[in-house]
Amino acid sequence: MYNQTEIIKDTSELGADGELVINMGPQHPATHGVLHLVVTLNGETIKKIEPHLGYIHRSIEKMCESLTYRQFIYVTSRMDYLSSHINNLGCALLVEKGMQIEVPDRAKYVRVILSELTRIASHELWLGAMAMDLGAFTPFFYAFREREMITDIMEDTCGARLTMNYIVPGGLMYDLHPDFQKKVKAFITQFKSKVTEYEDLVTNNVIFQSRTKGVGILSAEDAISYGCTGPVARASGVSCDIRKIYPYEVYDKVQFDEVLETAGDSFARYMVRVKEMNQSIRIIEQLIDNIPEGDFVGKTKNVLKLPKGEFYTRVETARGEFGVYVVSEGGTTPHRIKFRSPGFSNLSVLNHISVGSKIGDLMASMGTLDLVIPDIDR
Amino acid sequence: MTNEEIKEYITTLAPAATFDETGEWLNIMVTAEELKPLMLALRNGKMQMNYLFCLTCVDFKTHLTMVYHLSATSHRQSIVIKANLNLEQPVIETVCDIWRTAEFLEREVFEMFGVHFTNHPDLRKLILEDDFKGYPLRKDFEDPINMIKL
């Protein structure tokens, strides 16, 4: 955190090369949350970026130490609030792995469909917000038109439009809404007919391209060294899709491609996310007609106790690899829990990719990292 | 590489290492002094562990344990390296010159557990405010204002 506020009164104290320190945030329209960047500038060129975190720190890891294995899942929806179903899935998988709980097929299929719907909703929000950061206001309405349909589906399914909780250890909280399949199919039709509009409006826009191409270049080696995952790393050509490498649920039964770009700049990161939405639609199409009948939740004990030991699971959220690490002493609550959040590692690369570029390009670099601040602060 | 081969390889690098195979991955416990040379060899040697995907610390009330989850993008095999530290003066060498993601992760462990990382380029608090007292993720941490236990 940054406590000191210095008001420079005498400009003669500035460095010989005109060094200037600017506070960007914590309340800034382009940071989408309370992220505070202390940017050191030389003229308009960035010399250093220091993120100051903690404005939305709730110490979720400490909180989870006093919550039971049924309760702690609900807190994780408040971390990466745009990937809440996928966060819940990661935690549920960990408990199921530790206690060897059998999950019915119906629940597995629904979990994957919900994960992919969440991913599309997250990328839609990112697309609108990212274009708005770069000065294009209209794509926001286009993206939210489709996102609204997903939010409605989520509301039918689990009662919430944000911070959804539906996935529990053993399966699902309750059975699917009768209109679920109909509404998802309507969404697929709508999305497919409208996705070309994004291409016309944003991808092929010459201003957008010149503001993002060659900006914030990240090499493959640096992406791995900084621990970047998700679309950020895949835009640099690093294959890191957890759904492909360590398939969970029914991802090994569906056909989809891991989207890879090689340029590593902001435009490549944009392209990865837009193409990923189409892949998510492909996964949903393969599953939506084949949801098996049967139970939606497996048999579990009333009180869940993980055996003594250490457990780790990882899932692919909209931002990358989300890992849950639990040290259990054999009780009803975890002894220590650590969330490996993708945003935290993706943020650490911001200084590296922005140094030497102009301050105007910072918007493009930061926007395409797709930072969600509650996920970073936890 | 099988677990037996990795064990053999690690024993040549760190003779005092002990192994635990009960979990999902091979767990290797080393002393704090042995950690840095071992990490350098794992990154640059034949195992090419170029991806540090999780770095954290666990408070076991009698001691702290640093936990490093390593993997490689070439062969995708994961191993876990651990090192015990005492509670009074936890000191360990930094690994952020090997994996740059460790810079932020170590700053987080520094403020939450009070572990001091030697040779870290910028060891300051990252999330908590500068004048925060105590180490919140330690088990003996008490907060007089906010409820932290149920």
How are the SSEs ordered, and which strands pair?
The complex is a heterodimer of chains A (378) and B (150).
Chain A: E1 19-24, E2 36-42, E3 45-52, H1 60-64, H2 72-76, H3 84-99, H4 105-133, H5 138-158, E4 167-168, E5 171-172, H6 180-203, H7 206-212, H8 220-225, H9 231-234, H10 242-245, H11 266-288, E6 309-316, E7 321-328, E8 336-340, H12 342-348, H13 350-354, H14 359-369, H15 373-377
Antiparallel strand pairs in A: 1-2, 2-3, 4-5, 6-7, 7-8
Helix pairs in contact in A: 3-4, 4-5, 4-11, 4-14, 5-6, 6-11, 11-14
Chain B: H1 3-13, E1 18-20, E2 26-30, H2 32-44, E3 51-59, E4 64-71, E5 79-85, E6 91-93, H3 102-113, E7 116-118
Question: Can you describe this structure in just a few lines?
Answer:
The complex is a heterodimer of chains A (378) and B (150). By secondary structure, chain A is α+β, with helices and mostly antiparallel strands. Chain A has 15 helices and eight strands.
Describe this protein's structure.
The complex is a heterodimer of chains A (378) and B (150). Chain A has 378 residues and is an alpha+beta fold. Chain A folds into two domains: 11-52, no CATH class; 60-377, Orthogonal Bundle (Cytochrome-c3 Hydrogenase, chain B). Chain A has 15 helices and eight strands. In chain A, strands 1-2-3 form a three-stranded antiparallel sheet. Chain A has a three-stranded antiparallel sheet with strand order 6-7-8. In chain A, a hairpin with a 2-residue loop joins strand 4 (167-168) and strand 5. Chain A is globular. The mean pLDDT of chain A is 86. Chain B has three helices and seven strands. Chain B is globular. Chain B has a domain at 3-94: NADH:ubiquinone oxidoreductase Nqo5 subunit (Beta Polymerase, domain 2), CATH 3.30.460.80. Chain B is an alpha/beta fold and 150 residues long. The A-B interface holds A 1, 3, 53-54, 57, 59, 61-63, 66-67, 222, 224-227, 238-240, 245, 309-312, 314, 321, 323, 325, 327, 335-336, 338, 340, 344-345, 347-348, 352, 377 and B 22-25, 27, 50-54, 56, 58-59, 67, 69, 73, 76, 80, 99-101, 103-105, 125-131, 136-137, 148-150.
